[in-house]
Amino acid sequence: MLLLDTASLYFRAFFGVPEIKAEDGTPVNAVRGLLEFISRLVNDYSPTDLVCCWDNDWRPQWRVDLIPSYKSHRVVEEVETAPDVEEVPDPLQVQVPIIREVLAAAGICVIGADGYEADDVIGTLATGAGMPVDVVTGDRDLFQLVDDTAGVRILYPTRGVGDPDLVDERWVLAKYGISAAQYADFATMRGDSSDGLPGVKGVGDKTAAKLLDQFGDLEGIIAAVADPTTSLTKSQRQRFIDAVDYLAVAPKVVAVARDLPLDRSRTTLPSAPADPTRLYELAATYNLTSPVARLEAALARV
Q: What is the pLDDT of residue 158?
């Protein structure tokens, strides 16, 4: 099964593919790039199942309630009755509905969950999938899902999607000096300015990894802070004391959901478009003839 972090990929396509427009002037580089990514992935990995995982809510209120700074720097407009409006370049924003239409006509499964991010959809679908799972994402937070025993790994794009880093447990250990099972605690301590997570001040990658090696997990580190006989330095101990409020809520924010009630019945990758007439209409309207043809050829190989 291939699980795509769809927004991560269409953002990558938008910024990586030169500007291309439809006849009416609509920009379509993100649409074309995403279709090319999907075709390449299908050809390279021959999945039986593929899901474009969707951000129904890119900044869930329950995460904001726990950490108000969560993704706050990306908010253009706060909305009481719907997800906040994210800062997205206008030429990309107009392409998102086209992406949804093209995926529907192609018959490619799209799954989102109200009140949750695509990460949570990915976490749920990857858990208990009953088959090997490759997650395609540029988001390091999803390294927490890596599990050699369950056959879950991350395809982490470096340039496009043609030659990604294959992130398994050995890769995580070599890169960060921790196990994949420790990654969520590692990320909690390190923090992430791109998500508005402050982390524990003064604790970076090396210190976080060293502490996890010594005490096993975040719970063990917090217990060590409370125990004056442990080997923590005075400054390390104080840093965690100062971060006590953050550490009380951050693990829940960082951890991806794994138990959402999702419909798993539609994940099989089709061998032909679900609505070829509509797909060809969209291709003609939005200058997508070549990428649609390549996608159709890739599906036919399934």
A: 83
